Amino acid sequence: MTGVSVSSLFCRLRPALLTVVVLSLAVLGTALSVAPAAEAGTAAPAAYPGVAPAPGGAAAAPTGTAPPTPTAAPSTPNTSPFPPSAPTNLAASEVRTGSVTLTWTAATPGCCAIAGYDITYYQEFGDLAFSASVGAVTTTKITNYIGPGQQYSFRVSARDSLGHRSNWSDALAVVTPVTDTGPDTTPPSAPQSLTLDEVTASSATLSWSPSTDNVGVLGYNVYEFDGWFTSRLVATVPETTYTTSLPPSNPLRNRYYVRARDAAGNVSIASNTVTVPTTPTPPPSTCRVTYRNQSEWPGGFVATVTVQNAGATPVDGWIVTFSFPGDQQVTSGWNATIGQTGVTVTARNVDWNRVLAPDGSATFGVQGRWSLSDAPPTAFALNGAPCTAV
């Protein structure tokens, strides 16, 4: 292959070298033909260079000559600002598991002839876009990156011979079947009017209008979309409602959409999207609580609880509450007035530790019994406000 490469290079250079030699000879011949003879006794050079002497040795004055007239005017580049119109009536004439055949009405030229069309498409709720280019036609089959049971969005733009581009056509949404040979290759219609209803502090209910299908709608897939790159199936339900928990506060968009599905597994084009609110961010905790089992034996335990004021102002009077996850029962305590109702324990300050200064703390103890579990509590509150367990 190296020999072929060098031979090609030589063949490309040799015509240029030959041209240089020919031009050099031509220049030399011209110089020899116009050079005056240097023999003794010849007439003096003409008074006007480049004009032959007149008979008798007198130099003739040059006569005026008109400049040559160009045979054709130089061409001017076309600088028309008018691009083609946008293609119209974009449609899918055939949809299969691995291909989509598109048709459209040709664009109207602006300044110049239509040279071709560019197609851009992407899988709905994804982060990748694809493109294809064709000549001056009004139909093409797209096969790259097309898969079964997926939704795609297509647009077409025209370009002319000078590179002007039209606006994009209207978008066309297409969903591919899950099979090309099964008894049912027709997807259901898209669910309509997805709305967000009955929003509470912790949940929201989605509802939508039912879809139709040539065989029958089996149910609905509910998806969560982060608004950027990721879409995930969160539920499959038989009816037209779904209740979801509110997500915690985050930088994503928390959008939901729904697709109908039939018994063959075909899915519809997606519904519109709705945004589910997030749970409010709680204010920073102004207290910390530490629970330690000091001693434990079959049927009994002794524990200490330390509450710390993490705020900037003193706490004058405090009540600490927590719940036992096991079956513990408090029998006595110290450094606080302690009571228990069910699994919930309430500890109230006594006179000498009533005030918690900023960064100050108080420790109290409990003694009790248990039979099945002595698991420690994990959630605490100071005067009704949640504390950080440490």
Automatic annotation (TrEMBL):
Single GO molecular function: hydrolase activity, hydrolyzing O-glycosyl compounds
Alphabetical GO biological process terms: polysaccharide catabolic process
Ranges where the CBM2 domain occurs: 280-390
Pfam families linked: CBM_2, fn3
Statement: the UniProt record of this protein carries the keyword Transit peptide: no
CDD domains: FN3
Keywords for this protein: Carbohydrate metabolism, Glycosidase, Hydrolase, Polysaccharide degradation, Repeat
Domain called Fibronectin type-III: residue spans: 86-184, 190-284
InterPro entries for this protein: CBD2, CBM2/CBM3_carb-bd_dom_sf, CBM2_carb-bd_dom_sf, ECM_Regulatory_Proteins, FN3_dom, FN3_sf, Ig-like_fold
Claim: Repeat is one of the keywords in the record: yes
Chain residue ranges for the region called Disordered: 57-90
The protein, known as: Glucanase
Annotated organism of origin: Micromonospora orduensis
Organism ancestry: Bacteria, Bacillati, Actinomycetota, Actinomycetes, Micromonosporales
